[in-house]
Design a protein that fits this description.
The chain is mostly beta strands. It has a domain of 125 residues: Sandwich (Immunoglobulin-like), CATH 2.60.40. The protein is 11% helix and 31% strand. Strand 4 and strand 5 form a beta hairpin. It is globular. The N and C termini lie far apart (131 Å). The N terminus is likely disordered.
Length: 209
């Protein structure tokens, strides 16, 4: 009986020695790997691509620069037509409105300053219009000294007023005008218009809208 018990005890000791490492490892607590935190790019991230376009490149997103506005050139000869309309007489003053319209509706140009204007009488006398900022009938607002630049395009003409004082206050008869010539500002494109200012003192004001 003692021999049998000793043999069994020895067998248990040998078995324990053979499996000792496994037993100690199995008793250790198991751990799980930390979860991976993903970083999103694009519009969902407040610090990402401000356009929300989901840019995934290695560098900053770039945008194509916009071309600068092309300046509109001054009107050249032949680009504008000139017409005129009488404003009527008032308090010994007479005037007409000149209208400068674009010839080609697909084009645009600018006018700045004073038109040229001459009236020719039946005796051949040439009456030159004096350039003034404003007068009794119209012109630039009081206090304005710089003529504006007007873009002339389809449906958007420029205007100028020509005016003067009749000759009655000077005890003279009004001249008989047989021809009126108008030249657009900064141009040599002279046109003949079917209107006149019957006056002894002829003035022309800058173009406006």
């Amino acid at each position: 009986m003692r021999t049998t018990g000793f043999t069994a005890l020895l067998a248990c000791a040998v078995l324990a020695a053979a499996t000792g490492c496994s037993s100690s490892n199995s008793s250790a607590p198991t751990t799980s790997a930390s979860p991976t935190i993903g970083i999103s790019s694009g519009g969902g991230n407040p610090g990402g691509n401000p356009t929300g376009g989901g840019y995934q490149g290695g560098g900053p997103a770039t945008s194509t620069p916009q071309p600068a506005d092309t300046p509109i050139a001054p009107c050249a000869s032949g680009q504008v037509d000139v017409t005129a309309k009488g404003m009527g007489a008032a308090m010994s003053h007479d005037g007409i409105t000149l209208t400068f319209s674009i010839v080609d509706p697909s084009q645009a140009c600018t006018l700045t300053g004073y038109p040229g204007m001459d009236e020719i009488t039946d005796t051949g006398t040439v009456i030159h219009a004096e350039r003034t900022l404003n007068g009794y009938i119209g012109g630039l607002p009081a206090g304005t000294e710089t003529p504006p630049t007007v873009v002339v395009k389809s449906g958007h003409p420029a205007h100028a007023i020509a005016e003067g004082t009749s000759c009655g206050p000077y005890n003279k008869p009004d001249p008989k005008i047989v021809k009126t010539e108008v030249t657009a500002p900064n141009s040599t494109d002279t046109r003949v218009i079917d209107a006149a200012v019957h006056t002894c003192t002829l003035e022309i004001h800058p173009v406006t809208e």
